[in-house]
């Protein structure tokens, strides 16, 4: 299987300027291609990646106004059109929403790196048109002729490069008698069937609460500055506003890193138990986000990221991963006698069986039932 590797880049100021230009060219090519694609659709034509790419090369690259396109690698624009083509294919398959234009303010700053010109050696990585950039990492990266889908991105503070490497499955011996059920929740991140303690909700920790309080204060301060510097209907961005926006972006970055790190630690802890099977319920996350009272809490828990990480870690360790049926009543079934309690409400956090009188935490009961899902199905 292909395993992703992430390394931190240490570019010079001149290299960083070229990297920002590469991000800008990638965003410009994607937006231009999207506009052209929509225009051809309205004219009754059938646009494709090749037709849009040909039009881009014939009209823009021959125009002296766009000579700045030659300052970066030509593969950046080629890959931008490939990404646009993939976005449309995923939309028509129902896997994603309709492609949107990328904004400089909100979109991720990233660009494609030409793999056949990429060379990792002596603590540096060679990037086309940028040169040899120093990096640091804890991975032992082998010298290969090809790296899968290498890309550079900027997270608001540091530059990173990600690429894929071929790796064989981990051949560690599994515990054939251990089947784990995982129940995700808002109060606790996850309740595991074989563990007494649940995985805590990191958003309730003092560190996160202090950061969110600081973020709220800075956002109010920024809003007041925007109103104070308003010129008619136009908002004037001063240097102090730019400084505040940078502070807010860094806090968002820190919150994201803390949450992702917590999920990595939780999923790794589950995988180290060496179960032969992991069962999780198939959550309708997009539907859950429509609940205005719980949407923020669900977004902060990052359910999708938890499921994504547990999936690929199971695959790498040859552990079977099962998504239980969405309508499987894991919370309503008694884990002791197997009877079903039809009148169980969401506010009932303690499960009390009507037949045998068994009393247990609702989420723990659901996780135990999920752990037995394969045997019952």
Task: Characterise the protein shown here.
The protein is of the alpha+beta class and 377 residues long. It has 2 domains: 2-166, no CATH class; 175-324. The protein is 41% helix and 20% strand. The chain has 10 helices and 15 strands. It has helices at residues 13-42, 49-59, 74-92, 206-228, 239-271, 285-288, 295-301, 303-316, 362-371, 373-376; strands spanning 2-10, 109-112, 119-121, 124-127, 131-136, 148-154, 159-166, 175-184, 190-192, 230-231, 234-235, 275-281, 320-324, 350-352, 359-361. A 7-stranded antiparallel β-sheet has the order 2-6-7-1-5-4-3. It has a 4-stranded mixed β-sheet with strand order 9-8-12-13. A hairpin with a 2-residue loop joins strand 3 (119-121) and strand 4 (124-127). The longest helix has 33 residues, at 239-271. The chain is globular and about 80 Å long. The protein starts with a strand and ends with a helix.
Concise structural overview:
The protein is an alpha+beta fold and 377 residues long. Helix content is 41%, strand content 20%. The protein has two domains: 2-166, no CATH class; 175-324.
Report on the biggest sheet.
Answer: 7 strands, antiparallel
Total number of helical segments? 10
Secondary-structure content class: alpha+beta
Please indicate the percent range of residues in DSSP E strands (runs of 2 or more).
15-25%
Number of strands: 15
Distance between the termini: 29 Å
The outline comes out as globular
| Rg, alpha carbons | 25 Å
Helical proportion, percent range: 40-55%
Give me the oligomer status: single chain
Number of domains: 2
Which stretches are low in confidence, meaning pLDDT under 50 for 5 or more residues running?
Answer: none
User: On the 0-100 scale, what is the average pLDDT?
Assistant: 90
| N-to-C order of helices and strands | EHHHEEEEEEEEHEEHEHHHEEEHH
